[in-house]
Amino acid sequence: MPTIELNELTHSKVVFAARVMGCTPSEVVSRLVESWSSAEELDAEPEEVRVHAVYRGERVSGFFDPATRTLTVTAGPGAGTHSSPSAAAMAAIHAINPDRNPSVNGWSFWRVTRTGEELKSLRRPPRAV
Q: Pairing relation of β-strands 111-112 and 80-82?
């Protein structure tokens, strides 16, 4: 397998990013390279955006589809495809803590795994169909 050399500071940042993103350091580098692979891809809206949330110590992961504005929980409580980020957040909260009123703004609940920013950082008006 090919290798790359990193200085200590960059290596520690990649290792930290891997912990935050819940993946390996190699996956961090792969995702970074993939996200910058071509200018054409940067201008296009991504098909799916990897997202996650941590609620009461439980990590929930999934994908947000910007075109349909649906969110599919792929790992953790609330698994399944939901009609909106808020519906997915409410399903996860209810599964983890059924005694709590699960009303929550999903755009603030979910984090974009690649950047760590709230999902609302990607929010755009819905597309006309």
A: unpaired
Nearest C-alpha neighbor of 106 from the set 125, 123, 93, 87:
87
**Contact in structure between 47 and 70 (CB atoms under 8 Å):** no
Phi, psi for 56 (deg, rounded to 5):
50, 40
Q: pLDDT tens digit string along 98-127?
A: 998 889 999 999 999 988 899 998 876 655
Count of CB atoms situated within 10 Å of the CB of 20: 13
Strand partners, 82: 71
Query: Tens digits of per-residue pLDDT, 19-73?
Result: 888 888 888 887 777 666 543 444 455 578 999 999 999 999 999 998 889 999 9
Question: Strand (E) positions, the chain?
Answer: 49-55, 58-65, 70-75, 80-82, 111-112
pTM for this predicted structure: 0.61
Residue 69, both tokens = 């504005």
Any bridge partners for residue 112, and if so which?
51
